[in-house]
Amino acid sequence: MSVRRTERHARSRIALLALLLSSAAVHADRVELPNGDVYEGDVERGARSGSGVYVWADGNRYEGEFSEDKMHGRGVYYWPDGRSYQGDFQQDMRHGSGVLRWPNGDVYSGEFAYDQMAGKGRFQWANQDLYEGDFVAVAPGSVWATKRWTERGFSELARWAVAQRVVVVLVGTAGERDLCERVRTHAGHRVINLAGRTSPAELAAILELSSALLGNDSGPGHLAVAVGTPVVAIFGPTDPSRGFRPLGDRVLTVDLGTSLACRPCSVHGSHRCPRGHHRCMNDLQPADVIARIEAWPLNPLTQSPDRPRAPRG
Questions:
Q1: 91 φψ region: left (φ > 0), alpha (ψ -120 to 50), beta (else)
Q2: What sign for the dihedral angle of Cα 308, 225, 210, 237?
Q3: Which of 37, 51, 163, 199 has its CA 20 to 30 A from that of 226?
Q4: How confident is the model at residue 267 (pLDDT cuts 50, 70, 90)?
């Protein structure tokens, strides 16, 4: 459960806690709510103020400073799944600077704004890889099987991106984690798999920080455009000219064009190729996709003195 969701979930509990404390004749240092939540710490004028510990019945835990019933100041937030955040809070949200740790040992340290990673920061992965600088997001999945480019294609694309001295962050749903893990294994060093480990808000934050998103005709492309990130969208059975592509002038669409008479065969994609060959994706070679990206004026991966990286949108 994210901090933002926890905040919404806890509003009624906080109100009840404030009511209990305000009715008390003394400044209690421990309050047990009927729903199982527990608060231990300082109380001032009927509200949590100072420092203390709040433990939710569902296992979430906060230790740190409070101001008028809000997590405010410095503190540590623990999730039941093993994640933790240590740093600044403002009105119950991660805001300022801090460290976010995952149970497998991955660490992000840097700036946060409104619960999202924002500004300067770095990833330190459990395998001791260190990232400080540009990274690209790669989303090889799609809810529709026919809209997924080949696993080999994305592996080669990720390998090429790493060769440009950028880190690759694979994103997707929990159901796409195995696919992303195979891409990570084949792509080699300096690739992290975050598939299934981000909320929609966290995914938006990652896309906003990334230099580009490389993916299929799928949801992450639209989200990346919304946060101002350049997008390379690979199309197969669908046709970008029909209006369903990510919109804007910072989008490169890549497909086989009119070389296949059977495409487009669908408006939104399908679970299997009607012809059984899936040539619209299988015939699209990694070298051709890379060549299109390299020739793109907004190419976010390759920079030179006469062509710097594209500015943020």
A1: left
A2: negative
A3: 163
A4: low
CA 193 centroid distance within chain:
11
pLDDT at 247: 72
Q: What is the pLDDT of residue 250?
A: 81
Domains of the chain: residue spans and CATH:
3-93 (2.20.110), 134-295 (3.40.50.2000)
Reduced to 3 DSSP states, what percent helix, strand and coil does the chain have, rounded to the nearest 5? Answer: 25, 30, 40
Order of strands, sheet of 135-139, starting from the edge strand that comes earlier in the sequence: 191-193, 167-170, 135-139, 213-216, 231-234, 251-254
Residues 92 and 178: beta-carbon distance below 8 Å: no
Structure letter (DSSP) for residue 271? S
Q: Are 17 and 39 in contact (CB under 8 A)?
A: yes
Two tokens, residue 75: 């503190």
> For residue 220, is the peptide bond before it cis, meaning its omega torsion is within 30 degrees of 0?
no
Adjacent-strand bridge partners of 55: 38, 61
Higher-pLDDT residue of 258, 200? 200
28: amino acid identity, one letter? A
Dig out the tokens for 107 from the structure. Answer: 């660490």
Task: Measure the CA angle with vertex 243, ends 238 and 246; round to 5°.
Answer: 85
- Which amino acid type is present at position 195? A
Strands (E), the chain: 30-32, 38-44, 47-55, 61-67, 70-78, 84-90, 93-101, 107-113, 116-124, 130-131, 135-139, 167-170, 191-193, 213-216, 231-234, 251-254
- The Cα–Cα gap between 212 and 230 comes to 5
Residue 158 pLDDT > 80, yes or no? yes
Higher pLDDT, 269 or 215: 215
* Residue 142 scores a pLDDT above 60: yes
Which is more confident, 32 or 232? 232
pLDDT of residue 127: 61
